[in-house]
Write a structure and sequence with these properties.
With 156 residues, the chain is an all-alpha fold. Helices cover 81% and strands 0% of the residues. The chain contains 5 helices and no strands. The longest helix has 46 residues.
């Protein structure tokens, strides 16, 4: 028999795996429902543009299907844990493509990464030059101090 801590740990891991699988399934369902809603909205648009009295029943069926899809999405939404950045929502509100945000964000991150790497290289060069000058002008004092500060080398 397992000790209680191992038993609880195994149960917790099992629940986490089941929750992740459940979450993925819900996400897939919501994505499918969104695609279906978009398709239904497109069909409604076409029906309204070509409006004839015989199309009223078809229009009503499509609106009912859209409402039912929204209701199903509403029941699933509480089980999802999805966070969308406010900036992305602002892009969508402004009628812009959220992929633009992703592209601009990646460019900004790459630029900041390059800038940070430049700072690191500059500081590393400064450190080496500073240590060199310390050894040149204060050989006894700096030698002992700098050797103590170096991390031990690890043999591979």
């Amino acid at each position: 028999m397992r000790p209680p801590s191992q038993s609880n740990s195994a149960a917790s891991q099992s629940q986490t795996a089941a929750s992740a699988e459940f979450h993925d399934t819900d996400r897939e369902v919501i994505e499918t429902k969104i695609r279906e809603a978009l398709e239904t909205l497109s069909q409604i648009r076409v029906t309204v543009m070509n409006h004839e009295s015989a199309d009223e029943q078809v229009l009503q069926q499509r609106v009912d299907r859209l409402v039912k899809g929204y209701a199903e999405m509403h029941t699933i939404k509480d089980r999802l844990n999805v966070s969308v950045p406010e900036e992305v929502l602002a892009y969508i509100r402004d009628g812009r493509n959220p992929d633009e945000f992703t592209s601009q964000f990646m460019e900004r991150v790459a630029s900041e990464n390059q800038f940070t790497n430049g700072k690191i290289a500059a500081l590393t060069n400064f450190k080496h030059e500073f240590e060199e000058k310390l050894r040149e002008f204060f050989p006894e004092e700096s030698s002992a101090r700098l050797d103590r500060q170096k991390p031990p080398k690890v043999d591979s």
